[in-house]
Amino acid sequence: MPKYKMIDLFAGIGGIRLGFDKVFKENAETVFVSEIDNFAMITYRQNFDDDFDISGDIRDVEEKEIPDFDICLAGFPCQAFSIAGRKQGFDDDYYGNYRGTLFKEVVRICDYHKPKIIFCENVKGLVIHDKGRTFKIICDAFEKIGYRVHYKILNSKDFGLAQNRERIYIVCFRNDVDDSYFEFPDPTNEKVSIRDILEDEPIPSKYYLSETYVETLRKHKKRHQDAGNGFGYVIRDLDGIAGALVCGGMGREKNLIIDEREHSLEPMTKIKGEINKESIRKLTPREWARLQGFPESFVLNAADTHLYKQFGNTVSVNVIERIARKIEEVLE
């Protein structure tokens, strides 16, 4: 029997679980999963062989309905605290869903079950939101239900990934667990560039921008520059790293590249104008998956629109794995 049972809250496509599974292997078993996005649920099911259904909105699940567990994984929604968003925090109302308060669901469930470990990931803006008061509320809530809180901001680029992605990682140990020698992992400093994660040629022409769209992006960027803003598309150096992957807005256009390898100039979809002659293209969903540390075996069957959203919202598996290893050392 596995030593530890885990639950995966706000699971997305299972990035946090992947990192923990790689470390704990047969010593851990996931017994409950909750995710509200239907398309993310489909991708999750395609990649994890569970004998139970994924639960939807965690607010509709009573804590007693969840099986007992030792480790809680919770990537609670970060849009409410994101620098890229409106940073409304606990006041964030998104179509009636108060994203900023969803961390309270983690507290509610863990207060009832009292697992050994609570692990959370969020945007680094959480620390400074509302002059630090928001983060203090979160830490105080975990402490009040019997946990000691450790946290640190880590950057994916320091852990073998070609992406500049700073996130805060929170590890809570139940008070009776000796966490005296827990420490977050040191950077591996493995150098990886965008060139290392490119798919083999030829890249489908649908990822190459049309001349009309390239011109639109240039005009958009110039308007913002003239107004003193820093918004606009970014073409990345193949020997450099990508910016943080995000969904929506200019998410894909912030990580454009020039890929002059063989590719068709025949459009696969209906576009305005011809495919650009400068070989400017978006990164593919598989390349986004690699930037987040997902294995090649991870199944990507959804439409590109959904995959970009899913990988923009997910976590960097390399970082999760390193932290999980430190947690395992404490538990063992």
Q: Give the helices and strands as they follow along the chain.
A: EHEHEEEHEHHEEEHEEEHHH
CATH superfamily of the largest domain: Vaccinia Virus protein VP39
Name the shape in a single word. Answer: elongated
Q: Give the helix/strand class.
A: alpha/beta
Number of domains: 2
Low-confidence stretches: 79-100
Which strand order spans the largest sheet, edge to edge or round the barrel?
2-1-3-6-9-7
Name of the CATH architecture of the largest domain: 3-Layer(aba) Sandwich
Mean pLDDT: 89
What features would you describe in this structure?
By secondary structure, this protein is α/β, with parallel strands linked by helices. It has 2 domains: 204 residues, Vaccinia Virus protein VP39 (Rossmann fold), CATH 3.40.50; 84 residues, no CATH class. 29% of the residues lie in helices and 16% in strands. It is built from 9 helices and 12 strands. The strands form 4 sheets. It has a 6-stranded mixed β-sheet, with helices on both faces. Strand 4 and strand 5 form a beta hairpin. The two termini are 16 Å apart. About 7% of the residues have low confidence.
